[in-house]
Amino acid sequence: MTLLPYIAVRFEAEGSILDRALRFLSSLVDGQIDSAELIVAAAVLLGVSCGLLGAFIILRKQSMMGDAIGHAVLPGVCVGFLFAGSRSTPAMLLGALVAGLLAAALIGVLQRTTNLKSGECMGVVFTGFYGIGVVLLKWIQNHGLKQQAGLDKFLFGQIVGINEIEVICMAVMTFVVVLGVIVFWRKLKLTSFDELFAFSVGVPVKAMHYLLTGLLTVAIVVSIQAVGVVLVAAMLVTPAATAYLLTDRLHRMVMLSAMFGAAAGVLGAVVSAASRDLPTGSLIVLAASMLFGIVFLVSPRHGVLPRVYRVWQRRQKTQAENLIRTLFLILEKRSNNDRRFGVHDVAGIRQESPAVVRRLWKLAAARGWVDPKSRDPMIITDDGLEAATRVARNHRLWELFLTQEAKLASDHVHADAEYIEHILPPDVLRRLEQMLDHPTADPHGRPIPAATARGAV
């Protein structure tokens, strides 16, 4: 079976995009190597190569470099086509590699010999190279050279119809990228986090910069067949940025970035193969953006939804603490140790409606601070009294600190203490006590509660 037209024949049949996607996926397990396997292999290769290096360029704040080299390889593709006289993949990829390295070298020369900043140097070089590439591409099309049809696919990418030779070339280049990262892992890691420290321990910082630029160029050359020169920067940045939201360890970030890149490549390639006239590169980039969006929403540390949930939890806890601190203040004025508090009495002191106090009671009961079986009167538990003592202690220590150290009037410190009492960390509390020489009363003469076994620190 001829490999090149296989995928086109596979999707000529009528059906929805989902039907064509299912047929594409079924061809992956039909027991023979065909264009479906080649497409997936190419998508995985470009995702891995871009994902590995994307982590380093994000840490180095050099995302613009990927965009610059990505645009600069276009004239190399055209020159490779002209030298080969046909659409020879090795020749065009070699031309792209040479053009990318030349652009990177020229950027370095401009940075060393002019007063221009790195972004300006990149902008000058990649726009110039890209302009040359567009002119060459148009010249080739106007002169009707043989086998020039489809050459413009390098602008936006077209992975459908990729052949074995192209996949082999991508595999070799991806191997070079992976090998380079493995061999120079420690040096790349040091120079990415702290160039001055790396230089002080004898790491060749400039050599590592040139190595990373060379590997970056190789990764871009791997990717242009699938995503094109216009969108290649997205595959360097987006998977790595997605991984960065999930971890702060470099080795995990690199692995996750490669996985996200491969997943985006496969997903975009499948959708492209199942649709008609939709550019592969754009779909792969959209898949990477979709993965970023999902992680941005649900990432445990940086995701929007977990952040909203943490803020909501903190607000619930603060409201419950406000209630039990009010109960503590009432209990403090009682001559006996009666822990029962009427809802309407508490509502009057807090200047709130009984309905609001009952809602706060539910929050406190959920934390075990008040007896869940006693709605009115409310009964504060041992854990609740301990938590209330801690909050009152934080409040009064902070008021004393503001009056003694910040020299604020005693009637101007309550509002600030109302906020800080809920978030004062134990280590700061200990430092406050030492600074204030373990005080026993706040600025208003009220006693500062002693630290309990569990409640103070």
Description of the molecule:
The protein is mostly helical. It has 2 domains: 6-299, ABC transporter involved in vitamin B12 uptake, BtuC (Orthogonal Bundle), CATH 1.10.3470.10; 307-435, Winged helix-like DNA-binding domain superfamily/Winged helix DNA-binding domain (Arc Repressor Mutant, subunit A). It is 71% helix and 1% strand. It is built from 20 helices and 2 strands. The chain has helices spanning 6-10, 17-27, 35-59, 63-72, 74-84, 89-113, 118-142, 153-156, 164-183, 185-193, 195-200, 205-244, 250-274, 280-298, 304-333, 343-350, 354-366, 382-404, 414-420, 426-435, and strands at 340-341, 378-379. The longest helix is centred in the middle third of the chain and has 40 residues, at 205-244. It is elongated, with a radius of gyration of 32 Å. The model is unreliable at 1-14, 29-33 and 453-457 (pLDDT under 50).
Question: Could you name the key traits of this structure?
Answer:
457 residues; mainly alpha; ABC transporter involved in vitamin B12 uptake, BtuC; Arc Repressor Mutant, subunit A; two-stranded antiparallel sheet; 71% helix
